[in-house]
């Protein structure tokens, strides 16, 4: 029967009517009416006694009676407020009152003239559905005069209902907003952060499904709880996959290197972090080779279908890493790091290699846009500037009313922020609760974890990662100027200069000396020699030789 009814008519909730402006007065009267009825009945049947009672001392007993009536009226009002807070039926009536008021002052109505009567207000089609935790408001679009305003009213509804906008969708000619109340009630403790069928649980209703929403960007204001959130993620993810932890500021995460579970997989030297990211990129490529060569290879499968575990590359304070590399702009070190990071961001999902990047301040230059746009899950903790929210969430930030909440029920709030998938609705977020006051210690929990085992499909790469060191200092006898390199190769400096420019256009850069001139080492010399040998053997131009040589190396 329900399916037949839905075919002809879809229930959207209670339609907003003008009479809801009297809703609170009506409810108060209904609650107070039993008292009035009881008093009226008593006076009617005992009028003589009541009259005699008041005549004995009019100046005292009449004010006393009025005072009692006022107290009873206040009690009825208090009961109404409690009912609105705890009983869905009355909460819905209050929400209809607020929605009608919002639509009235926004002029979302038409007036109907009536003969010898006042004009009648008829609101545009709007419906409200509500349960204990959410309210759903639907506005008809279909060419109404307020259509454009309805499409942008989401942030205003958050304020109207003192809630958090969770969803916005257009369906069957209506735009439907879903707003949640008391989102903090969905906060979970750190021991409840675990993998589920919906993804990694971060709140009762918030999950990070990294298979569908690859890569995570965390932005945090000072003292907002970003480091604690990273520790929570590390504790949970170490149980399901492999981690590479990078901390260019040598701060909290660098301390994890002393724990066996993370032995050899914590990096804080800039050169080691670059190596780590490059080798994670190699892991990704190796996994693609593994999947391609597998007998069960089919279109649409990902790493989990081949029995592989996820790998997470965590870079705390990625802005600090960017700053470190800023002085090396144009060098191969910086270029290789950014190239590897971009490749993982673009292709890591299917191979199960994911990035978790954190920022103390979401600056425009901290993460290049071509990488940032690939980080699908976004979380902020603490208070950010409007620019910070815009960088963290993109254009959706303009559709969100960001609030600052310092206390809830008299207690300070920590770890509060916002989350959303890139390009989707942003919702309120509360980082999992950590009971430090009861002795919880992350380092004790890490010590209980078994050492991360490197699977066979990552084993070749891991041997390279363990062999880490700083980029060696290049001595004078290992360095060539442009002229010296040309002489060693038996060619002209012009050819070397032209080849350097062509290679830079292909994303291969060379170091510069203090005076800004290119300097080349023995490895560079061998590389140039191979390119020139390829040019002679194939009988092509220098630009063509470089293009084909690079392509052949990539294919190999």
TrEMBL record:
Transmembrane intervals: 25-46, 58-77
UniProt keyword ATP-binding present: yes
Gene Ontology MF term list: ATP binding; DNA binding
Superkingdom per UniProt: Bacteria
Domain FtsK per the UniProt entry, residue ranges: 203-390
Gene3D superfamilies assigned to the protein according to its UniProt record, in alphabetical order: P-loop containing nucleotide triphosphate hydrolases (3.40.50.300)
InterPro entries the UniProt entry points to: FtsK/SpoIIIE/SftA, FtsK_dom, P-loop_NTPase
SUPFAM superfamilies: P-loop containing nucleoside triphosphate hydrolases
Record keywords: ATP-binding, Membrane, Nucleotide-binding, Transmembrane, Transmembrane helix
Positions of ATP binding: 220-227
PROSITE patterns on file: FTSK
Protein name: FtsK domain-containing protein
């Amino acid at each position: 029967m329900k399916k037949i009814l839905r075919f002809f008519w879809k229930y959207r909730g209670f339609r907003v009517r003008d009479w809801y402006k009297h809703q609170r007065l009506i409810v108060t009267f209904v609650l107070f009416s039993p008292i009035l009825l009881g008093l009226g009945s008593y006076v009617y049947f005992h009028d003589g006694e009541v009259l005699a009672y008041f005549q004995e001392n009019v100046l005292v007993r009449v004010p006393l009676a009025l005072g009692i009536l006022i107290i009873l009226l206040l009690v009825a009002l208090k009961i109404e407020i409690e009912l609105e807070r705890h009983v869905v039926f009355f909460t819905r009536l209050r929400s209809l009152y607020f929605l009608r008021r919002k639509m009235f002052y926004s002029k979302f109505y038409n007036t109907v003239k009536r003969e010898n009567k006042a004009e009648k207000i008829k609101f545009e089609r709007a419906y409200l559905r509500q349960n204990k935790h959410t309210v759903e408001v639907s506005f008809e679009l279909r060419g109404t005069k307020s259509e454009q305003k309805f499409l942008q009213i989401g942030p205003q509804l958050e304020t109207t209902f003192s809630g958090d906008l969770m969803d916005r969708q257009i369906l069957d000619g209506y735009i439907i907003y879903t707003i949640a109340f008391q989102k903090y009630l969905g906060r979970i403790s750190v021991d409840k952060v675990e993998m589920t069928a919906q993804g990694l649980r971060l709140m009762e209703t918030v999950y990070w499904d990294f298979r569908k929403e690859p890569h995570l960007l965390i932005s945090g204001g000072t003292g907002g709880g970003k480091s604690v959130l990273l520790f929570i993620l590390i504790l949970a993810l170490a149980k399901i996959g492999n981690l590479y932890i990078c901390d260019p500021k040598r701060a909290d995460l660098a301390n994890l290197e002393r724990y066996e579970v993370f032995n050899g997989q914590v990096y804080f030297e800039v050169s080691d972090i670059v190596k780590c990211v490059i080798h994670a990129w190699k892991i990704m490529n190796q996994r693609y080779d593994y999947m391609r060569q597998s007998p069960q290879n089919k279109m649409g499968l990902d790493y989990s279908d081949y029995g592989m575990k996820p790998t997470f590359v965590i870079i705390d304070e990625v802005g600090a890493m960017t700053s470190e590399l800023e002085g090396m702009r144009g060098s191969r070190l910086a270029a290789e790091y950014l190239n590897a990071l971009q490749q993982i961001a673009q292709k890591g999902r299917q191979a199960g290699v994911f990035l978790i990047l954190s920022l103390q301040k979401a600056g425009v230059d901290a993460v290049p846009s071509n990488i940032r746009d690939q980080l699908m899950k976004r979380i902020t903790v603490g208070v950010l500037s409007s620019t910070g929210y815009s960088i963290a969430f993109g254009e959706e930030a303009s559709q969100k009313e960001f609030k600052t909440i310092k206390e809830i029920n008299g207690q300070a709030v920590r770890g509060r922020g916002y989350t959303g998938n890139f390009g989707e609705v942003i919702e309120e977020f509360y980082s999992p609760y950590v009971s430090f006051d009861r002795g919880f210690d992350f380092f004790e929990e890490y010590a209980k974890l078994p050492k991360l085992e490197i699977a066979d499909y990552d084993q070749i790469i891991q041997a390279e990662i363990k062999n880490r060191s700083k980029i060696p200092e290049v001595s004078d006898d290992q360095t060539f100027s442009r002229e010296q390199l040309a002489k060693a190769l038996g060619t002209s400096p012009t050819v070397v200069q032209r080849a350097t420019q062509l290679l830079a256009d292909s994303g291969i850069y060379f170091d510069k000396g203090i005076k800004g001139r290119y300097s080349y080492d023995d490895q560079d010399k061998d590389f140039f020699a191979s390119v020139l040998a390829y040019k002679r053997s194939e009988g092509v131009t220098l630009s063509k030789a470089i293009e084909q040589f690079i392509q052949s190396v990539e294919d190999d």
